[in-house]
């Protein structure tokens, strides 16, 4: 039902509700969808491996021989570069 509004003369008129606006896909949303198929892969010399979709990774980088991976959930992983055999983005 449409709400009714009184005007100054004492009669009521119907007011149309505006249609909800559907947001268009933004570039950030498109990028997030594309990143779901891209993975960060870290192979260690001991044979262990880390694989994460880039959509879950906020930031990663190397500083002073330490690989730091910061996830969107707030967890942080730090790994010595001397223990890493290979880092790739696939």
Describe the structure.
The chain has 90 residues and is mainly beta. Helices cover 10% and strands 46% of the residues. It has 1 helix and 8 strands; from the N terminus they run E-E-H-E-E-E-E-E-E. A 3-stranded antiparallel sheet has the order 4-3-8, with no helix packed on it. A hairpin with a 4-residue loop joins strand 6 and strand 7. The longest helix has 9 residues. The model has no long low-confidence stretch (mean pLDDT 83).
Supply the key terms.
46% strand; 90 residues; 8 strands; mainly beta; three-stranded antiparallel beta sheet
Straight-line distance between termini? 54 Å
Structural class assignment:
mainly beta
Record field, number of beta strands:
8
Shape: elongated
DSSP summary: helix tally: 1
Layout of strands and helices, then pairs:
Elements: E1 4-6, E2 12-14, H1 27-35, E3 39-44, E4 49-53, E5 57-63, E6 66-71, E7 76-80, E8 84-89
